[in-house]
Amino acid sequence: METKKKDIRALTKDQLRDFFVSQGDKAFRGNQVYEWLWSKSVHTFEDMTNISKETRQMLEDNFVINHIQVDTLQRSSDGTVKNAVKLHDGLVVESVLIPTSTRTTACVSSQVGCSLDCKFCATARLKRMRNLNPDEIYDQVVAIDRESRLYNDRPLSNIVFMGMGEPLMNYNNVLKAIDKITSPEGLGMSPKRIVVSTSGVPKMIKKMADDEVKFKLAVSLHSAIDEVRTSIMPFNATFPLSDLREALEYWYAKTKNRITYEYVVWKGINDKRKDVDALVKFCKFAPSKVNLIEYNPIDDGEFQQANTEAIDMYQNVLEANNITVTVRRSRGKDIDAACGQLANKSK
Ligand code: SAH
Prior knowledge:
elongated; binds S-adenosyl-L-homocysteine; ten-stranded mixed beta sheet; about 20% strand; about 350 residues; alpha/beta
């Protein structure tokens, strides 16, 4: 039986250097191969043209390069592009390219499916199958960057971890991917242009603060009242708002980085004055801003976007309390590429 070859991209640069030394070659060869694998992102050993034929064959005998494949690509009338990305084991995740006049954002997935159970999110209906590896996260970004250059003639400027999955439930791999994305040997992007969005896992928010990460944090809050939040995001029963609050205070004390709250206003759920007042209070625990995001319907009509008056009330009350608020328009709805709509429907 053939022994299973190892994914070469699971090796760190040092491990790759050691491997070459163990083969009687120079450590430097490891650097060359590392560069092909990451900053040049080649899919085959064959493409590593400054490596000798024998060495390429030796790599071929020992390793595989598990690359993602963009399976289907859909373009929205507003320029948004959704990739269905096939992983080496046949599972599929989605990532989205969102161009605006000032920036090009990649929205990437961190897990296949999701273990959380937010009632309003399409991804929650897929059970969590597995975590993505660092290279699978990195590859999504590379694919979107290439599409951005192709369709919009400019490189990617921002990344948000708002695709499928809960990034803080796959923390180590997300961190490794961000290391590659920000390192000069990878894409050399600034961590300030990366946002990790979480539904709020207090222990992991504290861990991020301890790790002194340089990227930005967004929290999908949706309600600052425990009963309401638990009714739409049931895991809130396990991680209540008091724990979240404590973790966010810790985060701010350590990083001095302001927090963004993602917030959808739904008819009959969180569209009353008491909901806004609770949000205002929550926003005062640590410097923050609020993104009011549009609801993207996911079929059965249980949730409905609140009317304009409710959104205006949120905006006015937040502003009157000196809290920065933006009202965000949804993109790519016609191809199910908007927030919370990623559910592998294109196949
Ligand atoms: N698990 C992470 C990241 C994925 S969700 C998180 O919860 O933040 C990305 C964002 O889309 C979150 O703010 C989420 O609350 C929001 N979202 C989910 N379903 C949505 C829907 N149907 N309409 C609008 N936003 C939605």
